[in-house]
Design a protein that fits this description.
The protein has one domain (7-66, 97-185): P-loop containing nucleotide triphosphate hydrolases (Rossmann fold, 3-Layer(aba) Sandwich), CATH 3.40.50.300. The chain has helices at residues 17-30, 48-55, 78-84, 98-116, 128-133, 139-148, 164-169; strands at 7-11, 35-40, 59-64, 69-72, 88-91, 122-126, 154-158, 172-175. Strand 4 (69-72), helix 3 and strand 5 form a beta-alpha-beta unit. Helix 4 runs parallel beside helix 6 (139-148). It is of the alpha/beta class and 195 residues long. The strands form 2 sheets. It has a 6-stranded parallel beta sheet with strand order 3-2-6-7-1-8, with helices on both faces. A two-stranded parallel sheet has the order 4-5. Helix content is 36%, strand content 20%.
Length: 195
């Protein structure tokens, strides 16, 4: 089973899902593996982009997002929504912004090509669970991607709210559970630590 690629899911409300995926990518690179790192619903504004894009010729990093966040109407308390209103587009359930859907669909097609080919040993789909939750990706699309996965490819999904169907297909599931977070005490995201 050592040559077989497995399916990982890092989910939960706690901090550390993307961080765990980055750590796995660095470990894989250290072993000479080729890594494709897709970041869904993100643009290249996070601190890790400055390092990941230069760390190794064996790492390909692609952001698949718009310069705004999307929030499904009714998915968060009004108080929390107020904090996001300048950076986000709120949409009615089942009606995500068309340009976001198109961008995510293109990224998903490239991800499917990455998992089905022999170019990469590890493919990371950062925040794809969140894209599923916001209806930017459908479960049948993810099933198609899973069916296309090459036997040797290690496939990683991150993001809150991983659906039960994905958890059932995974070989490894890690849930990041928030016990305490400084964000709830009013500490904003800090560059180099949270973003």
């Amino acid at each position: 089973m050592s040559g077989q690629g497995l399916i990982h899911v890092y989910t939960g409300n706690g901090k550390g899902k993307t961080t765990a995926a980055i750590g796995l990518a660095v470990r894989a690179l250290g072993a000479g593996k080729r890594v494709m790192f897709f970041q869904f619903m993100k643009t290249p504004v996070y601190s890790e982009h400055k390092v990941l894009s230069t760390i190794s010729p064996n790492l390909t990093l692609e952001c698949v997002g718009e310069p705004f966040f999307v929030i499904k109407e009714g998915s968060m308390p009004q108080e929390e929504l107020e904090k996001w209103k300048k950076q986000a587009v709120v949409f009615p359930p089942g009606q995500p912004p068309r340009e976001y859907l198109e961008q995510i669909a293109g990224g998903l097609a490239r991800a499917q090509a990455a998992v089905s080919g022999k170019q990469y040993d590890v493919v990371i789909l950062d925040e794809l669970n969140v894209a599923l939750h916001f209806e930017l990706v459908t479960w049948p699309q993810v099933e198609e991607l899973l069916a296309a996965k090459g036997e040797q490819v290690e496939l990683v999904f991150t993001g809150r709210g991983a659906p039960p169907e994905l958890l059932a297909k995974a070989d490894l599931v890690t849930e990041m559970r928030e016990v305490k977070h400084y964000y709830t005490q009013g500490v904003p995201a800090r560059k180099g630590i949270d973003c």
